[in-house]
Design goal:
With 95 residues, the protein is an all-alpha fold. The protein is built from four helices and no strands. The radius of gyration is 35 Å and the shape is elongated.
Length: 95
């Protein structure tokens, strides 16, 4: 395995080096393009905030609707249920 690694390192040493002229300009141009992209995304901030508010409103409305629908269902009466309001054990402990 070390022979293969030595061979790859030797090929890398013999390879021509990349020219570094103009590298700094390319880096700064990429940075500027990223900054421009962020400026345009900042313009959409009110739209993003509105979408979040609408999503929260829909979630709140849906959750309250589901809670009201669950509360409207008649409670099932069972002798061994925890909801047995007229059970003697609940009448005695409330005093």
């Amino acid at each position: 395995m070390s022979d293969a690694l030595d061979g790859m390192l030797e090929e890398l040493r013999r390879a021509p080096t990349a020219a570094l002229q103009g590298l700094e300009g390319e880096v700064w141009s990429r940075i500027d393009s990223l900054r421009d992209g962020r400026r345009s995304s900042g313009a959409l901030l009110p739209l993003r905030a509105a979408c979040v508010v609408v999503a929260l409103g829909i979630g709140l409305a849906g959750g309250s609707y589901a809670a009201m629908a669950a509360a409207r269902r008649p409670a099932e009466i069972s002798v061994f249920s925890v909801d047995a309001h007229l059970a003697p054990s609940t009448l005695l402990t409330s005093r």
